Amino acid sequence: MRVLGVDPGLTRCGLGVVEGLPGRRLRMVAVGVVRTPATDDPQDRLLSVQTEIDQWLADWRPDAIAVERVFAKANIKGIMGTAQASAIPMLAAARLGLALGLHTPSEVKAAVTGNGRADKAQVTHMVTRILALDVAPRPADAADALALAICHLWRSGADERLAAEGSAPNLLQQAERLAGQAPPNRLAQLHASHQTAARSAAARAAARAATTPGGTTR
Question: DSSP secondary structure string, 69-112?
Fold first, then answer.
């Protein structure tokens, strides 16, 4: 499975492609950063990001796209550009029919480092180790993009396992089915056997009463 991770932004948009399977060694395919001048108009900057992402999609042909989920911070002006940039890979996934994963920063940090509050240096260090890179990816936007791809690969494997477990028979349903197959209460069994014996005795008595001394039935 090949995943394109996108750390959205207008000034710097991190891109990273990771290939592998959950539980197996992962491999970095490509990493880079798209930069746009702050002096350009917003629409031109977004077009530059879109053009570069489209080129990466054509070159590397990923199976899925992982994008950082944007959430509100104190810097509302800065988050607007990030939100606008994040829409580009989301639309690309819809246009190309690719799987899309949105992951919060804490989810990515927890997946890669085991700590949802890890700093960027820790994330970069673990990405370098996980992908067995000789040189740490720089800047941090590039490392974050790779971390997003790693997170998506690992989480998709966990989601598949949960889905498989969810398709198994429900434990409560199993218990109810077994209860329905359980033998009747012992007291009920004794009561039923006594009733059967009484009916048999009555039937034998009626048969004797209906039989003549010669052994023929009236």
Answer: PP---S-HHHHHHHHHHHHHHHHHHHHHT-EEEEE-HHHHHHHH
Is 68 annotated for ligand binding?
yes
Tell me the per-residue pLDDT of 120-135, one tens digit each, with 9 for 90 and over: 999 999 999 999 999 9
Q: Quickly list H helices, 131-213.
A: 140-166, 171-181, 186-209
Token pair listed for 5: 């991770």
127 contacts 147 by C-beta, under 8 angstroms:
yes
Question: pTM of the full predicted structure?
Answer: 0.73
Q: Among residues 19, 68, 107, 144, which one is catalytic?
A: 68
Q: What is the C-alpha to C-alpha distance for residues 89 and 95, in angstroms, rounded to an integer?
A: 10
Is 152 within 8 Å of 5 (Cβ atoms)?
yes
41 in catalytic set:
no
Q: To which residue do tokens 């996980």 refer? A: 130
Does the annotation count 40 as an active-site position? no
The DSSP result for 57-69, as a single string, is HHHH--SEEEEEP
Q: Give 37-81 pLDDT, tens digit per residue.
A: 999 999 999 999 999 999 999 999 999 999 999 876 666 777 889
Structure tokens that stand for 192 in this block: 């039923």
Q: Is 213 exposed, middle or buried (0-12, 13-18, 19+ CB in 10 A)?
A: exposed
